[in-house]
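Weekly puzzle thread! Below is a chain. First person to post its structure in token form gets bragging rights.
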Amino acid sequence: MLATEAQIVTTVTPAAVRDYDAAAPKPDTTRTAVFGLGCFWGPEASFGALNGVVRTAVGYAGGTRRAPTYHDLGGHAEVLRVAYDPSTIEYRTLLVHALEAHDLTRPQPGNSQYRRLVLLDSDRQATVLEAVIADRGLDRERVTARVERLDRFHLAEPYHQKYGLRGKRWVTDLFDTVGYDDDQFRRSAAAAKLHAHVAGHDVDASFLDAESRRG
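Winning reply:
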């Protein structure tokens, strides 16, 4: 059973958050993957729960506007970017998670803001995608998600990042005590795991002690 918020408040300390973030793999040792999976709030939490996913961020991609905003997307879709440790989790595992949790074979939604995308940043990712499709016995035509080369990822506004933690006073107090601004909160590995945990996902993270994880 997941811990209640009251239990998390008493077990997650500013020092534990600082230590977890300090020990997390640095950006130059991680790789990134970008997916459009409908509204980006839920997928950010579900991917953040995966072992090996270090940091998460939500944003916009796939459109034409050079500086999209939530209220002026210019053809972009809501997307999720995950930074992952390739020594712990493979790009293939992230793709399978996307296929299983978000069914990339369903018809596209009418609102293009929520369209499903697999945004590739290399030939290696393209090769892995084709292998996953083949291994799962899918015809390429059955995958209705659009597959595109990633041109640019545009960060969404701060209030969208780790949305499930926004508006919770104990969270803002915790990260204020740590001394994080909005950008540091977005880039926090601890925030990514805490976001997933509060959303109801099973998370293995050292700063969530045994009592907090068990409830």
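Puzzle host: Confirmed. Bonus trivia for everyone else. Strands lie at 31-37, 53-61, 77-84, 116-120, 146-149, 154-155.
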